[in-house]
């Protein structure tokens, strides 16, 4: 299932903001991490309807992804 591109961009913005707040990051740093993440790739490609998950869930997935890389 593919999402409306405009709605998907708004979803990205909300997830990035939530991730930045959770991790105490600047929006620029959170944006950089998001666009280089597997979470972004899955959302963009419509895999498993990731874009349908809550903003909080996706921010947590980002946190876990980068925690695993450390």
What do these coordinates show?
The chain has 70 residues and is mainly alpha-helical. It has one domain (5-69). It has four helices and no strands. Helix 1 crosses helix 2 and helix 1 (5-23) packs across helix 4. The model has no long low-confidence stretch (mean pLDDT 93).
Write the layout of secondary structure elements.
Layout: H1 5-23, H2 27-35, H3 38-45, H4 55-69
Helix pairs in contact: 1-2, 1-4
What tags apply to this protein structure?
70 residues; mainly alpha; 4 helices; 73% helix
Task: Tell me the domain tally.
Answer: 1
Helix proportion: over 70%
Task: Give the CA-based shape.
Answer: globular
Contiguous helical run count: 4
Average pLDDT works out at 93
For the termini, the CA-CA separation is 32 Å
Low-confidence stretches: none
H/E element string? HHHH
Q: What is the strand content?
A: under 5%
CA radius of gyration is: 11 Å
Biggest sheet layout = none
Strand element count? 0
Structural class: mainly alpha
């Amino acid at each position: 299932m593919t999402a409306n591109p405009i709605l998907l961009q708004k979803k990205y913005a909300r997830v990035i903001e939530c991730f930045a707040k959770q991790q105490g990051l600047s929006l620029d740093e959170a944006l950089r991490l998001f666009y280089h993440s597997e979470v972004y790739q899955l959302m963009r490609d419509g895999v498993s309807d990731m874009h349908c998950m809550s903003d909080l869930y996706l921010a947590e997935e980002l946190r876990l992804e980068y925690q695993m890389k450390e």
